[in-house]
Amino acid sequence: MSSRRVAFPSILRGGLSPLALMLCFTGARAEPAPLPTPPDPLPAAKPAPRPEAPPRQDALPNAGAMPVPLAQGAEPAPRKSRELPPLVVARVSDDPVPTLAPSTFLDTFRMAERYQGIVDAGGWGTLPADLSIKPGARDPNIPALRQHLVLTGDLPAGVPSSDQLDPVLVSAVKAFQARHGLPETGFVGRQTVTALNVPAATRQRQLSASATRQIGSNFPYGDRYVVVNIPSATVEAVEHGIVVRRYVAVVGKPDKATPRIEARITDVNLNPTWTLPVSIIKKEIIPKMRKDPGYLARERIRILGPGGVEVDPTTIDWAGEKAANYTLRQDSGLDNSLGQVRIDMPNKQAVYMHDTPSKSLFAREVRFHSHGCVRVAQVKELAGWLLDGTPGPNGAGSTWGPIEIETSIATNERLDIKLPKQIPVTFVYLTGYATPDGRAHFRDDIYGIDSPAVPMPDVVTTGSIEPKRPVLIAPAKPAGGSLLPPGLLPPGQIPDKAARPAN
After folding, report:
1. Choice between 451 and 244, residue whose per-residue pLDDT is larger
2. What's the predicted TM-score (pTM) here?
């Protein structure tokens, strides 16, 4: 979605003040420097603004003088654009096949069996960590690369072998890169070699662990649904079994993990306010207010007591934790921690998808930085897709297109738009999964939960509801030759600290 443009009014000489006349002929004032990127979800403290004194007329150059006409043929000074800079996001796959579909559990389980066969046969070798091969180049490690890609199905078995990264092998490398969420360049470099060197046993465990996490799911797919795969840090809008749009996302950091949920999207909130969770009030707000009593005022965060009555921050003893007994709410606006759009999806973990004023992280390949909720790049476009079929601002017959969404946001007034038909949404943790076309896909185990040996402490979420301590399944030898490993988290539970896999 294109950024909102701010139009300049026509310049009329009649009735303008001397200051306005000066600005008209000296060009538009330079844009202020952008604010520092805030941590999610609280913005960094900004210096207190100085009161701006009105300019003295006798201090202005040429104050009160008549404007000097431009010389013949001279061009007026160009005005600086106030259009917002384009949003820079990381590259994501345009594969129309969804990460999650009704067949995902069985497809992934069967793929785990196939990878167990590769493990039993000895797996694959490793390549030098500093290996770098450009398309068309020759290298003595290419035969081992070919063997690996044949095992994983990226390269047909009957292709003539050589030590050159020829076009057929380049295509196979690109297929491997696509399955691992890497840039599809065909160049064999550090990232690709790192993924190639993950042992086959680890890949098998990722598949079986991901399949286990799908046991007991009752997700109602329907014609339209939304999938957030946490390890991929992406959001998929799925319609009639096809991904119509895949969005870059920022998800929870390992110590503030995004939980697994199954919910329904009920509302789209434009210009949302943000009610701070108790955990953030205690851990972040109270320490900030002890050092900087003006912090809440600058961030437009109000303190509300019983009945929604606003409380003066100076009446609260910030030396203790009494502030946690109040409701702290940040006003709507561009600098609101939820940005301009919030997607409401009631769930016991109190997580949701939203916009953000801090968009620089969308350009990174590694996007695990939030407090547990999911920040979505181009969230207004996703909101438009969710609102398809919802009566627009002018009632029956109108729609919620880009213009209508931007116009409503421009009012700076909160607007909650209820969907006439709720849309299923799920946050899943699939480090290994298979698609119906027979491909196995892998992502990093950022939370370190695929190994049954990993300890599982309490889940940290953005909500005020305290989650239950996850329970370990007692280790036991798999019955009936099952490949599903014991000791894994039950559905919906994710630990709050990453740990290294066993191998």
Report:
1. 244
2. 0.73
